[in-house]
Design a protein that fits this description.
This protein is mainly beta and about 325 residues long. Helices cover about 10% and strands about 40% of the residues. The strands form three sheets. It has a nine-stranded antiparallel β-sheet with strand order 4-3-2-1-9-8-7-6-5, with no helix packed on it. Strands 10, 12, 13, 15, 18, 19, 20 and 22 form an eight-stranded antiparallel β-sheet that branches. Strands 11-14-21-16-17 form a five-stranded antiparallel β-sheet, with no helix packed on it. This is DUF1080 domain-containing protein.
Length: about 325
């Protein structure tokens, strides 16, 4: 009798569990997932990123990355009609005004919609599902490439009119705010070794594939956050603050294969084989399935480099 009772309890538990999974499956919306966006904003095409997922069985929430700033939480994505949706987010670095309001629709597997900006202007945008990026187990590496030759900026170009980058005594430096510096060559999966230095209070960053910013900022002694040195800006925070004082040379050793990244700061592994969800603010584009360049941020504070070595995955 006891055995039969236990079997009955197990059967009922399995039924309840199965019913719960069925309920969740029934509430999964075709809007859910990560989306790479392109937005026609202020006369140019800017990359953005959107994540929509369910919370509980009936509520949709998410995150949004604009052309600048960090990933912003979406408290609720409201749906209506056939795969139409709307949400709003408060301004971050934008001019003061109203919240940013988004309207979108899923048609033929793609998103299309509008954004009402903080000043009331309207921008059109489109989106495609972010691709699955292949992760290679036990990757075999090719020969290291000295991307910075220690003499000049051959193999690099700026993304603006002002070129403040100079090379002196084997050191590449941006002494003042100006243009970002971008490699001519594009890379897919790689290991990166850089040696860098910044003055007190400065702020910069390195964009992997031109899309994912590894933060560089004077943050010694602060609690580890994704917006501080060692973090993937707005997404992944380091497990400890391994920063040295401003004015000292520091090192990054970064491995990126697919979406999985490992960050070693000054010899300490601060992010270990973690997944980067999507592009970060300031990305060059949102074409995540394609190789991309390295971009050094030069539009913030002063920064110096004396080594920039890339070891690509062997083809």
């Amino acid at each position: 009798m006891i055995i039969k009772t236990k079997l009955l309890h197990l059967f009922l538990f399995a039924c309840i569990l199965g019913s719960t999974f069925t309920s969740y499956a029934q509430h999964i919306s075709p809007l859910e997932g990560r989306w790479d966006l392109e937005m026609e904003f202020k006369g140019r095409t800017v990359p953005s990123w959107l994540e929509i997922r369910h919370s509980g069985t009936a509520t949709l929430i998410g995150r949004f990355v604009f052309a600048f700033g960090s990933a912003r939480p979406i408290a609720e994505v409201e749906t209506y009609g056939d795969n139409k949706f709307t949400f709003s987010i408060p301004n971050q670095w934008e001019p003061k005004g109203s919240d940013m309001i988004f309207h979108g629709e899923l048609v033929g597997g793609k998103l299309t919609g509008t954004m009402i900006y903080t000043d009331g202007s309207i921008a059109n945008w489109t989106g495609v599902k972010a691709p699955d990026l292949v992760y290679t187990e036990n990757p075999k590496w090719d020969k290291p490439i000295e991307v910075f030759n220690g003499k000049d900026v051959s193999g690099w170009h700026v993304d603006g009119e002002k070129n403040q980058w100079v090379v002196k005594d084997g050191i590449l430096s941006s002494p003042e705010s100006g243009s970002n510096l971008i490699t001519d060559e594009k890379f897919k999966d790689f290991k990166l070794h850089v040696e860098f230095r910044y003055p007190k209070g400065s702020n910069s960053g390195i964009y992997l594939r031109g899309r994912y910013e590894v933060q560089i900022v004077d943050s010694e002694g602060l609690e580890p956050l994704d917006i501080y040195l060692g973090g993937i800006y707005g997404f992944l925070e380091p497990n400890e603050n391994a920063s040295k004082p401003a004015g000292e040379w520091q090192t990054y050793d970064i491995t990126l294969v697919g979406r999985r990244v490992t960050v070693v700061l000054n010899g300490k592994t601060v992010i270990c084989d973690a997944t980067i969800p999507g592009i970060t603010g300031g990305a060059l584009d949102s074409k995540e399935g394609e190789p991309g360049p390295f971009m050094i941020q030069g539009d913030h504070g002063p920064i110096e480099y004396k080594s920039f070595v890339v070891t690509p995955l062997k083809k």
